């Protein structure tokens, strides 16, 4: 029989999730830069080849042209955004779990964990949508060579000046379409893997570091397997000139499929999957370590 689980504390989830988010950005940002550059690279003119042949080519060209710093372009926005966002994400998951428990020692089913994960996706969109818009614009301006924005704050100011708050929140519906099902998948697969990897008679809270890394890494891959198509549409839509897609994501989807076929919805797949494992392994490890520390520091919170 497994040991009694620690009561769910959304507040501890909030702080531990924030720390997990910082770990995720440091581990995953270079491949995120490559993913966005691959997803948004312009269609080549007749007789010209693509700017980047693939993940490795984009990595080499970015390093050669901009050095290691080029891979960390636009990282200030996700660090500022990701820390509270992952705090809110894990808080939402903790709250979603707590709301479904009839008593503190109830063990939740996998559909219940999926529902709690979806709630966390709704919670994070308010921060996620503008953060992603700014990050994508900064990442693609570095690859096109046209410097329109001096940095994240300048980007916010210009977007607000041009289109008000709507300009900053462009792509919110697509962010929701991406994050709600993907977050459900993320947390459910992590909890499932933790249970699978837990030795008999032990608690999932006592998992070894390699097991946490493995569960977190695979959960990240499950999350992105669901999230990539809406993520491609979102990157396109958020970086498009004003008025290019009057009917929103439907226009983006039609144009992509007409010009590049269904496979274009999985653009940047290799970069995403290469990043998903280490970034999410780092995130969940950071979360679990912070959680242990908080449980030690304030066991009754």
TrEMBL record:
SUPFAM superfamilies: Mitochondrial carrier
Lipid bilayer topology: Multi-pass membrane protein
Signal peptide: none
Keyword Transit peptide among UniProt keywords: no
Gene Ontology CC: mitochondrial membrane
Pfam families to which the protein is assigned, alphabetical: Mito_carr (PF00153)
Record family assignment: Belongs to the mitochondrial carrier (TC 2.A.29) family.
The protein's name: Mitochondrial carnitine/acylcarnitine carrier protein
Gene transcribed to yield this protein: slc25a20
